[in-house]
Design a protein that fits this description.
There is one protein chain. The chain has 377 residues and is of the alpha+beta class. It folds into two domains: 242 residues, no CATH class; 132 residues, no CATH class. Helices cover 60% and strands 7% of the residues. It has 16 helices and six strands. Strand 5 and strand 6 form a beta hairpin. Helix 3 runs antiparallel to helix 4, helix 8 crosses helix 9 and helix 10 crosses helix 13.
Length: 377
């Protein structure tokens, strides 16, 4: 790790700290969000979904976005019935089982949790793609429960941080995070951070103000080991331009070129994140085969009852007795043109349509980013 660059990040963090804490996002709210979680979290709550939603009410912006809402996903699953809620509760119980700080085991628990919750979601509502869980969500749940033995994680910010500091530890292997390596890197940052007495005092003062504003004294106590602060610096480094180098001696042309290059790097990181999400959706779509519906009984509001008389890929024909009509999968069932008693067929069609629409929306964002990048040279 390039500790000289890390020191520059600390300096820029301190210089811009007033903007950080007074921005619309109010970054000190991270500490309040963790404090709230610890006050409301109750694994044995009678209504697990409502408890979970309440506990993470101030943290949804840290773990989700418009197209990705894991917190809402957990609450949604818990509303599907007692059996489903108990499956979700059991998945959290396994995630939070003590592991003696064995981070390889913790990573396996996190991955198992993601797989288990997404499996329940697939069976319950496969079209609710935005409710799926990712490893970042599982790590956030762990970090909120025990910040002294965990670090919050967001992929784009962490990758940018590692790239800028020339981190040599293999934190990423393809798309897979090595949790132990990530925590080691954070520990290195923490060791350097703990020597920044002025910075720590500045943050402590800001958290005292946050505690006064929220009437929550625990805000100043929940991060005794500064793990939340380490993540805050990683997050702010990308989102508040803390990666800028010393600029005083550079010409205006050089500064303009540097700003353009930095903008290009940020856009390329955003593009890589969107392409990763697009690949995840495409992989899931590839797993779903169009169902064989030959002979299936269906109904149409205008033509009445009929049966599927022929199918060729996505296109199929329905014999309504008075004549045949052609339709396309998945739209015919996903959009309600045809109805059937086969709920599994409808669910599959809805999931295919949702994935297709989400993929198209992502492609538009990707195309726009690629155009923006191309204009930067």
């Amino acid at each position: 790790m390039d500790t000289e660059r890390l020191q520059k990040i600390f300096e820029h963090y301190a210089e811009k700290y007033e903007n950080v804490i007074n921005s619309e996002r109010r970054e000190t709210a991270k500490w309040s969000a963790v404090s709230r979680f610890q006050k409301f979290w109750d694994l044995d709550s009678a209504n697990f979904g409502e408890m979970f939603k309440t506990a993470l009410e101030e943290a949804e912006g840290m773990v989700g976005e418009a197209a990705y809402q894991p917190v809402n996903g957990i609450a949604f699953l818990c509303r599907q019935g007692t059996d489903t809620m108990e499956e979700v509760r059991d998945a959290f119980r396994e995630l939070f089982t003590p592991d003696g700080s064995d981070y390889a085991l913790r990573q396996k628990k996190a991955e198992d949790f993601v797989g288990r919750i997404n499996g329940i979601l697939k069976e319950t509502a496969p079209d609710k793609w935005k409710y799926h869980q990712e490893i970042s969500a599982a790590i956030l749940y762990l970090a909120f429960a025990d910040p002294d033995d965990n670090y919050i994680y967001k992929e784009a910010e962490v990758k940018a941080f590692c790239e800028y500091l020339d981190v040599t530890d293999e934190i990423f292997s393809g798309d897979r995070l090595d949790l132990a390596a990530y925590y080691r890197m954070c520990d290195e940052v923490l060791n350097e951070l703990n020597q920044q007495t002025d910075l720590l005092q500045m943050v402590g003062d800001a958290l005292s103000e946050e505690a006064d504003e929220t009437d929550d004294s625990s805000v100043t106590e929940i991060d005794g080991d500064n793990h939340i602060l380490v993540f805050d610096i990683i997050y702010c480094a990308q989102n508040y331009d803390l990666y800028e180098n010393e600029r005083g001696r550079k010409s205006k042309a050089a500064l303009a070129s540097e700003e353009e290059e930095q903008a290009k790097v940020r856009l390329e990181r955003e593009l890589a994140e969107l392409e990763r999400k697009q690949k995840t959706m495409a992989d899931r779509l590839a797993e779903i085969a169009y169902p064989d519906i030959a002979g299936a009984a269906v109904s149409h509001k205008r033509y009445g009852s009929g049966h599927v008389s022929a199918q060729s890929g996505r296109q199929f024909s329905v014999d309504f007795g008075t004549g045949e009509k052609k339709f396309m999968l998945p739209d015919a069932f996903a959009k309600g043109f045809l109805s059937t008693e086969d709920e599994g067929l409808v669910s599959v069609c809805r999931e295919i349509l949702q994935l297709t629409k989400s993929g198209e929306a992502l492609q538009c964002e990707i195309d726009l980013l690629r155009h923006q990048i191309s204009t930067l040279g």
